[in-house]
Amino acid sequence: MNDYILAIDQGTTSSRAIVFDHEGAIVSTGQKEHEQIFPQAGWVEHDPHEIWTNVREVVGIALTKADLTGEDIKAVGITNQRETAVVWDKTTGKAVYNAIVWQDTRTQKIIDRLGGDDGPDKYKERVGLPLATYFAGPKVMWILENVEGAREKAEAGDLLMGTIDSWVLWNMTGGKKGGVHVTDVTNASRTMLMDLKTLSWDESIAADMKIPMSMLPEIRSSAEVYGEGRRGGMLPGVPIAGILGDQQAATFGQACFEVGMAKNTYGTGNFMLMNTGTELVPSKNGLLTTVCYKIGDKPAVYALEGSIAVTGSLVQWLRDNVGLIKSAEEIETLASKVDDNGGAYFVPAFSGLFAPYWRSDARGALVGLTRYVTAGHIARAALEATAYQTAEVLDAMRADSGVELTELKVDGGMVVNEVLMQFQADILDVEVVRPKVAETTALGAAYAAGIAVGYWEGEQDVIDNWAEDKRWVPDLDGDERERLMRNWKKAVTKTMDWVDDDVT
Predict the structure, then answer these.
(1) Cis peptide leading into residue 356 (ω within 30°)
(2) Phi, psi (degrees; rounded to nearest 5) at 406
(3) Average pLDDT, the chain
(4) Tell me: the pLDDT tens digits for 386-411?
(5) Beta-strand (E) ranges in 56-193?
(6) Alpha-carbon gap, residue 250 to 265, rounded angstroms
């Protein structure tokens, strides 16, 4: 009994449940995709009720595959797409609007209004984030301003808000019948509403956004018991004991516990985090200062983060919107048919440019085209875009932290792509290391929950379980590396100043 930890990984494109054993190995997995809703250009939504239904289904699949029941699970950890915001009625359990996804750019006018004469850095000293469409608080503000009756219900105390972890936890612990309304410090740090020093909600920023304090979840650590699975569910009485935003969870799962250690996750977008310890490091180079994790009563550990909006989702776009490939795996086969990008550069600023530029007025561009360019070159340019964007983030991290990385730990769906991983090492001039368990996001949430209930003793168990799978060593001439990066940066400039009053 109680021999396993279950992690729920609620991501941008799918929900997964993964059962882990004490060695951190995967026992079984359940996964189900959910609909990507695009009401108009720049808008991205998810149906929170579909997500909750899928979470229950994937938990059932994972348990069934391993011939387990809730009695075999010691604790549950939750990890989630972070800045995606949900607002729901606590009396009915129904969302008042679809979840507004982190990629969504509809809040730009709200951002401009909030910044006023102070500009995008108005709250940065307190929350570590620039004013940008990326973050959750302004998305909630949009819902309250645009959904009929939402403002009145919010001010009457009937509405709750949260990132996806809060929505899943509330439903898992009873929903409208006593559900626990909690988030952890890592997710709270992505709302623009939490003071990084005090780890509490900043009432003055909430007032600026006209978000009633009654809507906000309680902020807790990343590893403690928040509540138990509801009666009648598949996990009745099982402690839900870990919550980490997906990128922080991956950092934890990669055992990046020392100052200066960094990981990069290759998923829908790319996210590089560097542990800065208990010290808050303000960024002067376009990075975010965020909470990395907080284990129970221990001090919070902080991180610098470089967030890139579009990497894996560019491959998805080439498959679903353009039809260049029939499956995501085909991108590597197609790119392998050519030796280089043929002079083509693909800047996928579909949601504007995130780190280190933070330009919401940018839009995607494919530049440098000649009659020589083939489908293989475009596939190669799409993969290289991920590596170039990562290189710019790493340069910013070096400048902010003063730390020279000797290696970069990588994880996420794209790390199976050998062409990409070798080019990443080449363009960074740093060794790239993939762990044996690439599902580090779910694993990090599992570790947090397991540590909270004593299944694992602490961070040392995570370090002991981590194992290297493959390493890529740089093999590119320095002059060629400089030429490629120079042309990439030139390509990036072609995406800016696209959005104005006539273009959305």
Answers:
(1) yes
(2) -95, -20
(3) 92
(4) 999 999 999 998 898 888 888 899 98
(5) 73-80, 85-89, 99-100, 159-163, 182-184
(6) 7
